[in-house]
Design a protein that fits this description.
This protein has 2 domains: 1-30; 31-150, Protein Binding, DinI Protein, Chain A, CATH 3.30.910. Helix content is 77%, strand content 7%. It has 5 helices and 3 strands, in the order H-E-H-H-H-E-E-H. The protein has helices at residues 2-28, 37-42, 45-74, 78-124, 144-150, and strands at residues 32-35, 129-132, 141-142. Strands 2-1-3 form a 3-stranded parallel β-sheet.
Length: 152
Amino acid sequence: MKSFYTLCVVIAVFISGFFAGYVFSEQMGSRVAVVDVAKVVASSAQVQGLKAEQDAQNAELVQWIQNAQNSVNEEKDQEKKEKLAQQLNEELNAKRNAFAQRYVTALQAIEQSINSTITDEAHKKGYKFIIAKGMILGGGDDITDDVIKVVK
């Protein structure tokens, strides 16, 4: 019951904040831009390129794992087999970590680029406020298609 009241209070605060912001922006003559960020990201050539790169890296890892398994299976000495398996497992973890780090770094750069493009495009069109489409219940001007044309 307590969580229900807490949820009601949170919703009431959110709604009152939303309407207060809406009234304030209307009084100040500010326009609100709304952007479907997921749609922008999905249509980004940078994101598609990163996905293709990740697919290629995954294929490379699968091939590497198959080769490693073959090497371990070919070893007849049990002690050498265990040592080789441990060494190859460490190499696999290093490769996975390197690929993951490159992916995270590239993804952060793409996210920063997309956010910058959204902000630039909104400001060019005279918007002071930019809200993600999923965060707004109504109002605002949807500039998603304009941003998609500019995102690389």
